[in-house]
Specification:
The chain has about 475 residues and is α/β, with parallel strands linked by helices. It has two domains: about 5-160, Aconitase, domain 3; about 285-460, 2-Layer Sandwich (Aconitase, domain 3). Helices cover about 30% and strands about 15% of the residues. The chain contains 16 helices and 18 strands. Strands 5-4-3-6-7 form a five-stranded parallel β-sheet, with helices on both faces. A four-stranded parallel β-sheet has the order 11-10-9-12. A hairpin with a 5-residue loop joins strand 1 (about 15) and strand 2. It is globular. The model has no long low-confidence stretch (mean pLDDT about 95).
């Protein structure tokens, strides 16, 4: 019987099927951070039980961490308490912990792949919605709630209904200045933020075959923003090359054995999906959002739609434009901006910094722009310095901050002030997402860089 990639990985992890109910589903890798884990660990303590498989759980601090002066005590008491709780819980329950100041510390969905925790055919969960990032490796990865975090800690399993299957094909050649972030934002704009609800998405076609692993991570990261349970891309030689030799990948004979299995992880001919959607790469241009959810995006050269032509319900659309202080049929190009954020689990990798630097090289940061450039890990931070990117950024008037989630979600000190506009490479642009009253325009590192040096929304293709 022909199976999809998703079926192969899912079915091999079902411990027990519940009649007319969810599957008891085994989890290979459990990632935890400081925000969604304290109550889960407290639940274990109250029940007098431990973590079933401590070697399958990995903890890192990222959401509440400051991105400057990380050698100093954390000033915010809530953040400090959560960071301490993660450290104490990891020690008590025997879980590997990369806390603030540790050289392997960083954004959970960046340090996982960096260290070989993320593997093809694995099942991966974390108390964070953007766990879908890890699907870039041919893994089934999705976010879970705090009660489910406790469930996985206690049993290494989760009760989970099997999602439906969707395949999204993008074929053809991407145009100049079009990045994986643009591909993802384009798909979300076409499907809307609920278009993939109830589905697990497999991405296929020329465009994804040609993408780097970092680009694939960006696409899978944003799967959740169209309502999908997660996204997955079949592993290939790029995948195997990326993970080989990393700390937690199989070694020597175990590697060869794993490779035999990993090479079977692809959708069989004749396998069926519940839904198949096709896109042409030539229809995609650099994207930018104009509203208050990731589906409210357009090509950067296009105008804000009218309420009649928008995919959103009319009242939602009008409310969104009112919040953003935009009007129907506005041009996005030329909109003044105040902040630029490069980073997050979506675009905090070395390729994102290379792209950003390619635009700002030989130019200067606009005086009206505050720029937060935040690497996703110390590994990325070191690469930025070793490749000479930091010198170029400094020459252009930019500074590099320390690893963390930063301005993605305003749970730390990096908050965009009320009424200010931010061009952000992160994943969400909800009302107040980057700070109470802040206004967020989601975009790629190239679009962010162009805005950073011009002080307004600018088509990066003019600057490449």
């Amino acid at each position: 019987m022909s199976k999809t990639l998703f079926d192969k990985v899912w079915d091999s992890h079902v411990v027990r099927k519940v009649e007319n109910g969810p599957d008891v589903f085994f989890i290979d890798r459990h990632l935890v951070h400081e925000v969604t884990s304290p109550v889960a660990f407290l639940g274990l303590k109250n029940r007098g039980i431990g973590v079933m498989y401590p070697n399958k759980t990995f903890a890192t601090a990222d959401h509440n961490t400051p991105t400057i002066n990380q050698h100093l005590p954390v000033e915010d008491p809530l953040s400090a308490n959560q960071l301490k709780a993660l450290k104490d819980n990891a020690k008590e329950f025997g879980v590997l912990h990369w806390g603030l100041g540790h050289r392997k510390n960083g954004v959970v969905h960046i340090v996982g792949p960096e260290n070989g925790i993320t593997l093809p055919g694995a099942t991966i969960v974390c108390g964070d919605s953007h766990t879908s990032t890890h699907g870039a490796f041919g893994a089934i990865a999705f976010g879970i709630g705090t009660s489910e975090v406790e469930m996985v800690l206690a049993s290494q399993c989760i009760m989970q209904p099997k999602p439906k299957k969707m395949q999204i094909n993008v074929n053809g050649e991407l145009g100049k200045g079009v990045t994986p972030k643009d591909v993802a934002l384009f798909i979300i704009s076409q499907l809307t933020t609920s278009g993939a609800t109830g589905y697990f998405v497999e991405y296929a076609g020329d465009v994804f075959d040609k993408m780097t692993m970092e680009g694939r991570m960006t696409v899978c990261n944003l799967s959740i923003e169209m309502g999908a349970r997660g996204g997955i891309i079949a592993p290939d030689e790029k995948t195997f090359t990326y993970i080989q030799g990393r700390e937690f990948t199989p070694k020597e004979g175990d590697w060869n054995k794993a490779m035999e299995y990993w090479k079977t992880l692809k959708t069989d001919k004749g396998a069926t999906f519940d839904k198949v959607i096709n896109f042409d790469a030539s229809d995609i241009e650099p994207m930018i959002t104009y509203g208050t959810n990731p589906g409210m995006g357009i090509g950067i050269s296009q105008k804000v739609p009218t309420a009649e032509n928008a995919s959103e319900q009319k009242d939602t659309f009008i409310k969104s434009l009112d919040y953003m202080d935009f009007s129907e049929e506005d041009n996005m190009i030329g909109k003044k901006i105040d902040y630029v954020f490069l980073g997050s689990c979506t675009n905090g990798r070395i390729e994102d910094f290379r792209a950003f630097t390619s635009i700002v090289k030989g130019r200067k940061k606009a005086e009206n722009v505050t720029a937060w450039l935040v690497p996703g890990s110390h590994v990325v931070e070191d690469q930025i310095k070793e490749e000479g990117l930091l010198d170029i950024l400094n020459e252009a008037g930019f500074e590099l901050r320390q690893p963390g989630c930063s301005a993605c979600l305003a749970m730390n000190d990096d908050k965009v002030p009320a009424g200010k506009y931010s061009v952000s490479t992160s994943n969400r642009n909800f009302e107040g997402r980057q700070g109470p009253g802040s206004r967020t325009l989601l975009a790629s590192p190239l679009v962010a860089a162009a805005a950073a040096v011009t002080g307004e929304v600018t088509d990066p293709r003019e600057m490449l």
